[in-house]
Amino acid sequence: MAKKFHQPTRMCVSCRGRYPQNELLRLQCENGELSSFKQVGRSFYLCQSCLNEEKKLQKSLMRHCRSGQKDKLMNKLKEIITDDRKS
User: Which pLDDT tens digits describe the chain residue by residue (87 residues)?
Assistant: First the structure.
């Protein structure tokens, strides 16, 4: 009989859906700057479907990073996603 492993679930901050942790993108904001999670500090998660809805995503990022610079946040997110796919 195969042994079942516990799969942690986390909530997407945009849609509030619960998903397995390994299916979500983990980010953090420090001083209004968006970055990939650096293993220290508070973080938040975004699901794949929300990553495809730009307006919803902009609101979530501006709220969590406490910044009104939506273009800067969206550009940084695109950069993070591109870097994440390379590795």
Answer: 566 778 899 999 999 999 999 999 999 999 889 999 999 999 999 999 999 998 989 999 999 898 888 899 999 999 988 887 666
Residue in this structure with the two tokens 């699901």, named with its chain if needed: 47
Spell out the SS3 assignment of 3-36: CCCCCCEEEECCCCCEEEHHHCEEEEEECCEEEE
Q: Where are the domains of the chain?
A: 13-86
CB within 8 A of 6, min separation 6: which ones? none
CB within 8 A of 63, min separation 6: which ones?
none
Q: What are phi and psi of 58, to 5 degrees?
A: -60, -45
